[in-house]
Amino acid sequence: MNKNKPSLKERVVMLLLLAAILLIFAFFLKDILIPFLRLELRNDVEGARELLVDKGWLGFFTVTLVEALQMVVIFVPAEFIQISSGLSYPFYIALLLCDLGVCLGASIIFVLVRTFHVHNEAYEMTRRRIDRLSAGVHDRNAVLFMYGLFFMPIVPFGAICYYGSGTKLSYGRYIRTVALGAIPSIVASNLMGEAGKLFLLRDLSLGWLILVIVLLAAALFALIFVLLQRCIFKESDGTPDSPVYALIFFIVRLWHGRRPRPVIDDTLLREVDAPYMVLANHQSFFDFYYIYQMDHPRNPTFLVNEFYCTRPVLRSMAKRAGILSKKLFTPEMAPAMTILRTLRRGYPVVIFPEGRLSPDGRTNPIAEPGGAFYRRLGVDLVLVKIRGAYFSAPKWRKRRYRSEVRLTVEEVIRKDELRAMSGEELDRRIERVLWNDESASPVCAYPQKDKAAGLENVLYRCPDCGGLYTVTSRGNELRCGACGSVHALGDDYRFSAPPYTIGEWYDTLREAEKPLLGDFRLETEVDTLIHGANGGPNRKERGTCILDPGGFAYRSDSVSFSVPMDKLPALAYSSGAEFELYHENELYYFYPTAQRQQCARWALLVDLLAQRRREGETT
């Protein structure tokens, strides 16, 4: 017999206890709980305070019951009732009432899970996050792990209790863990309520109120972070299971906002065991965040531009989070070794093989083919196509639209199949599967009124008269200052006259540049920002950049160097701002002093020469 299974007597007692709790809830529903929850939904903290004070001792029960209710249903925020109780009662009473409510809610959850095997849908949505965290805990002590979860702001109390109820913990150890683990958060919220009370009584200015809240939140966060980093997840430091990894994506989630939440079809991923490689097309800066939200069995790590892993603060965070780095379009051995080590530790690795954002909504050619490398790794290859992100947040526009984004696992190439393919065959297959033309079938309508803003920094030549840098944007229109032609974008991101799409317009740029490939020379004065090697100090200077069929050259008063064209597979750039490359482990940002539309032209010419070189190698 399973000794963890409750006896008939225990089941009866638990059922009677649950019935009693439900009756108490029903007693309070009409006069207190429902009005209080309405105030909560309106975020009316002052109204909630007045209600609790008016109800006298019944208000005590309201705090406890509402705290318990939010535990059971998970998605009701606990901070509201905790701050309201801090506003209404002395600190020690508010703390006691909230902790009693947490214990009551935890007890109800324990009964529901252990006795009736109830599954909470809200918890199931959070369960994947908890499973990821538990994968990085080498000491599987459930009590210690629950304490760690209570200190993490990304996991609701109710979800932690559903997790704990599903373990083999006895009720005594379980409820003690809950009662103690919830105290720091309750203390912080109650103190915020106390500060709010002083503000309402005009004993505290608004500035001091904000400062107190910020300091309390910072102190709680620091306590959380130190406990997690040094006591609970110490062995996971430097991996995607570390608290720093969770912190990075918590910050990104706040930055990105809740919408758009990507529509994800990762059915094929469910048949894959970690570790594996993920390759995806690259449409927007937030593509890594969309990939992160797939149903990975373990947290994936990402191969990113070395710039993000060498700056102050970012350098430390990236290292502790297990993020991998590589210099853009620069041959290196170290990234291959770090990828291999990460896979051997069981973590998926995500790479965007284009190495840069798409300028025209179509997948870039793979500048640095990696098929031969992928087939030697001995893991499955997951090919993911991202759609919608390009029109949501293209590289040429500062504003991001909260429009639909879709991710689809298009193919999974098993490691046995990989070994039977040549590197060239695999590269061709990757390019074919990841190919996407965003203009061919937009995922939604785009009714915004400023869709063309900044687009002239990619579409730098008029398709009608061939005018160079004569195109300007306004609202949804691109206008040529030379011939006066107007091209307006509709809700489907198609132009009103030929060329009908951004991709087709970009093709006119290609055709205009191809006759010049044998003999051209671009030269521009630039303001140069140089990021020192390995996070070294930055420095600025003025110089000159030159591009011709032979390669790229830069000279200034302090340095002069050149890069042969066959060593320059692509040129990364920011629309209307700068182009960039690495030289001797330093990252150079070149800002043209005049006509910054030309950044896109420099990059396109390098692409065309690289394409001609690839085609020559295959003939």
Task: Give a verbal description of the structure.
This protein is of the alpha/beta class and 619 residues long. The protein has 4 domains: 8-223, no CATH class; 251-434, no CATH class; 455-514, no CATH class; 517-618, Pleckstrin-homology domain (PH domain)/Phosphotyrosine-binding domain (PTB) (PH-domain like, Roll). It is built from 21 helices and 17 strands. The strands form 3 sheets. Strands 1-7-6-2-5-3-4 form a 7-stranded mixed β-sheet, sandwiched between helices. A 7-stranded antiparallel β-sheet has the order 14-13-12-11-17-16-15, covered by helices on one side. A hairpin with a 7-residue loop joins strand 11 (522-531) and strand 12. The radius of gyration is 29 Å and the shape is elongated.
List keywords for this structure.
seven-stranded mixed beta sheet; elongated; 619 residues; 4 domains; alpha/beta; seven-stranded antiparallel beta sheet
The total of beta strands comes to 17
Chain-averaged pLDDT: 83
Q: Describe the strand arrangement of the main beta sheet, using strand numbers.
A: 1-7-6-2-5-3-4
> Helical region count?
21
Unreliably modeled segments: 136-140
Helical content, roughly? 40-55%
The outline comes out as: elongated
Class of secondary structure makeup? alpha/beta
Strand content: 15-25%
Amino-to-carboxy terminus distance: 73 Å
Overall domain count: 4
**What composes the largest sheet?**
7 strands, mixed
